[in-house]
Structure formats: structure tokens, C-alpha cells
């Protein structure tokens, strides 16, 4: 039996997702069982440090250097905590698969730049703290093959979710929204995946600004507000939304600078709850517009990630595609919050077996590749 911990710390900065998983087999024969899951929270101080290095205005090489190791210690703690909660001896762990914290993603660089992406959280520290082999840095190899280095979760979705009769569409709504479409009986070459635009990123920033709340719990503010059509149109005109795939995005395009610009122009004209409602509709509409070319009435439209708990957002999506059955992840038997951490274990397992796990059709890479770097404990 092989046991591993998958670590995911995504764009919304709500903490480190750690999944203790039992895994068997490889490729399409992979079987996983979730043993335990925790979200190891970030302190406000750590969140501020991460936000600081994200932003060109406040970042510095010194801050990045130090944070790389600091996050390594936190990731190591998250592994220990999830094992403790499961009453599982860390000595029996076979490997850790760590995504790392994305601090910059430049898939379509300007002239003087190189296509690049940077995830930090030093694997050597995780390795020493847990005395376990660590696989990390999954995105760079795909980028070396001219891919976007993202999304990387679709391989695991192809393995776990494909169906013989129905199109399965998996929409993740984290900080950013990302979609995977798996046709019935698909081969890996037929899987389509890309980022749809913002997920909760703008909604969260507005809730922090207006209400000093981290997010719009269950979509309550949005439910009380009214969508402003002019603002919505301006948001939908963002060039990323109608760009053709492969495409991926992040805080570089929809982070605090973007929200600040919107606020400067619209804050005096729109009430806070209407602003939140409009940002929520922006996420819903950008998802539906990007999904529409790939779906029919027989599609399982499955929403995962933290945004699946925003009832107003889910309702807005369903209303725009009344003939399609919209479900949330738990309704098809998988944990929404643990999904990406489990995906890291599937990717790490492939790497340890010298097997590829990117989806070239999704990332635009020239060919399949073995992803990640391995820090061996012994
Ligand atoms: N009950 C809830 N109601 C509304 N929104 C919620 C709720 N629970 C979580 N969320 C939203 O989900 C977000 C976290 O989502 P998730 O953990 O999937 O993101 P992530 O993995 O960090 O991001 P990404 O997938 O983009 O890397 C929170 O910041 C919040 O906006
Ligand atoms: C560079 C980066 O970290 N991208 C993330 C981000 O968060 C969601 C979306 O943007 C997706 O492209 C990706 O994450 C998921 C886990 C992926 O690669 O599949």
C-alpha cells in the first residue's frame, strides 16, 4: 500500500490544503482513497507576506528568498498535522507531492521577458521535516515544452471522472476559475481545459474592502444586490474572457490592481452589495460563455472549489444554462475542497513511476512530459 500527502496552496490564499491519500496503480488504472483532509490556515501575517511578493510594487528578492523557506516549514507542518489527525505514523508515508505557492505566472510574456512561472515553498525543508521524498514544481517542465504550465489538474480529472456516456465538465472555482471538459470515452488527446477568468478573487477583494470579510459567505451579499449591466459589460470586455484556449491567468490580471481600477471608476456610482452581485455575475457569465461551445443537454456540469459553496454564484450559472444539470462536486461523490491536493498525489505518483501527467491539449505543450522535481530523502 502506498500512502502520500498532497499539498495545495492556491490563488485564494485561504491556507494549505493537505490530503492524506492511499494510492494504487498508475495512469488510467490509478485508484485513490482519501484518508484525511485538513486546511492548515495561513496567519494574517503570512497572507500579507505572500501578497507582498505577488505585487510588483512591494516585492523584493530578499522577501521571496525568505518566504520560499518559510512556506517550506509551513508545508512541512501541514503534512505533520494531517497525519496526526488521521492517527497515521509519518514514518509510513511514501511521498509528499507539493504544488507550492504560485507567486508569479507569465505564460504570455512581453517582449523582453521569458515565458515562466514560479511556485515557492522549499521542498528540501519539507523533505527534512517529514523525512520523506518530495515531488514539487510540477509546472515548469510543461513550460519548457512551450506549454502554459497550467492547468495541471486535468490529468487527474481525466483519470478519476471520465464517463462512458456523458460529457463531464468540471468547473473549479477557486481564486481563478478553471474548466476541464472530458468527452465520453475520451482519450487524453480529447480533453480540453483552460482558465475561464476570475473565480472568487474579485468577490473576495470587494468583501474585504466593503465589509472586512474574507469572502461572501454563501453568496449572501450578492443575493441582496442587483447586477449593474454597464459594469458587467466593462468586465466582460476584458480580453482574457473571449481569448481562445490554451489560456491561463492569475493575480497578474485579476488581482488587487484590477479591482482597485474598477473601484476608482465605479465605487461612487454603485452600492457595495450591487458591486458584489456584479462581480459574482462576472464570474458566472465568464464561466458559462467559455463552457457553452463544449456542452449539450446531456452534460454533467460539476462545480468544485470554494466557489461551489457560494449559492448565488451557482444559481447564476444554472439560470444561464437551464437545460444542463449543474451539480456540485460532493453530489458526484468527491470532496470539493480536497480535489486539488488529491490531484497532486496523482501527479507525484506518475512522476515517481517515470510517467507523464501533463495534458498537452490543455497547456499547449509540444508533447507529454514527466512533471516535477524529486527531492529524495534517502
Ligand atoms: N461558504 C462559502 N461561501 C462563499 N464562498 C466560499 C465559501 N467557502 C469558500 N468560499 C470561497 O472559496 C475560496 C477558496 O476556494 P479554493 O480553496 O477552491 O481556492 P484555491 O484552491 O485557493 O484557488 P485556485 O483553485 O484558484 O488555486 C474562498 O476564498 C472563498 O472565496
Ligand atoms: C499558475 C497557477 O498556479 N495556476 C493555477 C491558478 O489557480 C486556478 C487556475 O489558476 C489554474 O490555472 C491553476 O491551478 C490549477 C490547480 C491547475 O493547474 O489545474
UniProtKB/TrEMBL annotation:
The keyword Kinase applies. It is an enzyme of class 2 (transferase). Keywords: ATP-binding, Carbohydrate metabolism, Kinase, Nucleotide-binding, Transferase. ATP binds at residues 10-17. It catalyses: 1,6-anhydro-N-acetyl-beta-muramate + ATP + H2O = N-acetyl-D-muramate 6-phosphate + ADP + H(+). The keyword Transferase applies. GO terms for biological process: 1,6-anhydro-N-acetyl-beta-muramic acid catabolic process; amino sugar metabolic process; peptidoglycan turnover. Pathway: Amino-sugar metabolism; 1,6-anhydro-N-acetylmuramate degradation; Cell wall biogenesis; peptidoglycan recycling. CDD domains: ASKHA_NBD_ANMK. GO terms for molecular function: ATP binding; kinase activity; phosphotransferase activity, alcohol group as acceptor. Its EC number is 2.7.1.170. InterPro entries: Anhydro_N_Ac-Mur_kinase, ATPase_NBD. NCBIfam families: PRK09585.2-1, PRK09585.3-2. Catalyzes the specific phosphorylation of 1,6-anhydro-N-acetylmuramic acid (anhMurNAc) with the simultaneous cleavage of the 1,6-anhydro ring, generating MurNAc-6-P. Is required for the utilization of anhMurNAc either imported from the medium or derived from its own cell wall murein, and thus plays a role in cell wall recycling. Belongs to the anhydro-N-acetylmuramic acid kinase family. This is Anhydro-N-acetylmuramic acid kinase. It comes from Pisciglobus halotolerans. The lineage of its organism: Bacteria, Bacillati, Bacillota, Bacilli, Lactobacillales. The gene is anmK.
